[in-house]
Design a protein that fits this description.
Blueprint: H1 2-14, H2 18-23, H3 38-43, H4 46-59, E1 64-71, E2 74-85, E3 90-91, E4 98-99, H5 105-117, H6 148-152, H7 173-182, H8 198-212, H9 216-228, E5 232-233, E6 247-251, E7 254-258, H10 267-270, E8 273-274, H11 276-288, H12 303-309, E9 314-319, E10 332-336, E11 341-345, E12 350-358, E13 361-368, E14 373-379, H13 386-399, H14 414-426, H15 443-446, H16 449-463, E15 466-469, E16 473-476, E17 479-486, E18 489-497, E19 505-513
Antiparallel strand pairs: 1-2, 1-14, 2-3, 4-8, 5-8, 6-7, 9-10, 10-11, 11-12, 12-13, 13-14, 15-17, 16-17, 17-18, 18-19
Helix pairs in contact: 4-13, 5-8, 5-9
């Protein structure tokens, strides 16, 4: 046993995570999936999904498309249709190379975080530190200086620049700097609101070049694509034409081919070309960042930094009248993280996503960390509305009764279960509670003992004979609730523990409810 501990210690130290290993909370158990046959359940939905994808692609005039589902880190379902080249009739497959447009942004964001983690920049650095031409630019003289964090979250104050930005891919760094030096027209003051900006992410690509001395694309290839064994490129001319998806626009009831643009500095915001098969590895990387847990990270950057990308850093808005494609009303709130958007709906379901759109292409990926589920759709028609289908597929899968895919379950911590046992034994008399050492120093100042006794006694009397206690339902490691089941109903008890070691109860609530099922 001692040798095993020493081996683990050496392995963790080798990954540079020794301080975190030492500080990790003893006995922590991460959330887990209760079902052992998740893929088997999911497969029931595949024929339904197949029909949905085919119908949607036809209705929206996709020349070609590639769609996939990732579950628990694996591409478990894929389907493709149509052509990547209408002239040669090259069929679209999971290995066809599509330009994914703004889905590229999260790669640029990940590269920035990698440099941050290595101590080569700070997210609160002024952008002008790396782009002097930007110094003193803003909507007003009192506007805050633009930071790297502002660029990551579309809060620099630049105007929304689609579709103008889509035509800039080939521009060189020199042309980009000349554009900045001439003076940028701002739409808002820095840091006050979200407004989508391709210029901002192009600046991030330039900052990568200034810090590393390498083209942003080369840096991302070496530090993200290669570790994930992804097949990808920034330059369409480097890809075998048999695999390259040509882009089209549906106009006058026909497809017109859109010219592909070469790689330039604006590629950092939307120039990446890859396949469904390769991109699924990137989706798996993001899903693998969840849940937070002990042990070393094996990806290009730490799991914690990937989870940081998923956080709602810049509020976008509340859509109280949102309806799912099925017509089901469900309010949503949205925000932007780092190169990714965040959305929570009326059911509490959280998803992370990003779309891509360029002349000739439309794409989207969306994943739900708590469900271990992700979907990807790549298409080769201008601004293909791919996000709608992906949302439809996810909502359909999660609402299919015979699939019944459930999110992870958080197990109750030892501290919560121990407090539950001790507290239950004290109720309803609260005898010797003050001397029990179960309660924090604030507790009996905030909750008078005579009131506690009166309240609990009244509730237990109304509840009748006790049948038993249910399992603890944690909200996190130190807070949650449980039920004591009785003849006449159930007693709900909730409490919050302190951050002290050992933890003690600092807050408590009790109530009686009839016909409550756990």
């Amino acid at each position: 046993m001692q040798q095993n501990k020493l081996l683990i210690f050496k392995m963790v130290a080798a990954f540079g995570l020794l301080p975190f290993f030492i500080a990790a909370q003893v006995g922590y158990q991460p959330p887990y999936f209760k079902d052992s046959n998740r893929l088997e359940k999911m497969s029931i939905a595949f024929p339904v999904v197949e029909k949905m994808v085919q119908k949607y692609a036809a209705e929206n005039h996709f020349p070609g498309y590639s769609f996939g589902i990732v579950l628990d880190g694996k591409l478990v379902y894929e389907t493709s249709g149509g052509y990547t080249n209408l002239q040669t009739k090259a069929p679209a497959t999971s290995k066809s190379m599509f330009r994914i447009a703004s889905m590229s942004k999260s790669f640029t964001a990940m590269a920035i975080l990698k440099l941050r983690d290595e101590g080569k920049l700070s997210l609160d650095d002024k952008a002008s530190k790396y782009i002097p031409e930007l110094k003193n630019q803003g909507l007003t003289t009192d506007a805050a200086p633009i930071t790297i964090r502002d660029l990551l979250t579309h809060a620099a104050g630049f105007p929304e620049d689609n579709p103008w930005g889509d035509r800039q891919l080939e521009k060189t760094s020199q042309e980009f700097l000349a554009f900045i030096k001439k003076g940028i027209h701002f739409s808002t003051a820095t840091g006050l609101s979200y407004e989508y900006s391709n210029v901002g992410f192009t600046m991030l690509g330039y900052i990568i070049e200034k810090i590393t001395g390498k083209n942003y694309g080369v840096y991302i290839k070496e530090n993200i694509w290669k570790p994930l064994n992804m097949e990808a490129s920034w330059e369409f001319s480097s890809i075998d034409d048999a695999k390259l998806a040509h882009g089209y626009r549906w106009i006058n009831n026909n497809w017109k081919e859109e010219p592909l643009l070469h790689d330039g500095i604006y590629g950092a915001m939307g120039g990446m070309i890859t396949s469904l098969a390769s991109f699924s590895k990137y989706v798996s990387l993001h899903l693998d960042a969840w849940p937070a847990r002990n042990g070393p990270s094996s990806g290009p950057i730490s799991r914690s930094s990937i989870r940081e990308m998923h956080q709602p850093s810049r509020f976008i808005g509340l859509n109280a009248s949102y309806k799912y494609p099925s017509g089901r009303a469900c309010a949503t709130t949205a925000a932007y993280g780092y190169g990714l958007s965040w959305l929570k709906d009326c059911t509490g379901r959280t998803s992370i996503a990003h779309s891509g759109g360029l002349p000739g292409f439309g794409s989207n990926w969306r994943f739900l960390p708590e469900y271990g589920l992700g979907v990807i759709l790549l298409a080769n028609v201008t601004y293909a509305p791919t996000a709608v289908l992906n949302t439809m597929v996810i909502d359909t899968i999660l609402r299919m009764g015979n699939v019944n895919l459930q999110p992870r379950i958080l197990p109750a911590s030892a501290a919560l279960k121990n407090a539950q046992t001790q507290l239950t034994a004290l109720l309803p008399s609260w005898k010797n509670a003050v001397a029990s050492n179960l309660f924090a120093e604030n507790f009996f100042d905030d909750y008078k003992i005579d009131t506690l006794i009166k309240e609990a006694s009244s509730i237990f009397e109304a509840a009748g004979p006790i049948i038993g206690s249910g399992n603890f339902m944690p909200e996190n490691e130190l807070r949650g609730y449980y039920y004591i089941h009785a003849k006449n109903g159930s007693i709900k008890i909730s409490f919050t523990l302190t951050p002290t070691n050992p933890s003690q109860i600092q807050e408590y609530h009790i109530s009686f409810q009839k016909h409550i099922e756990e």
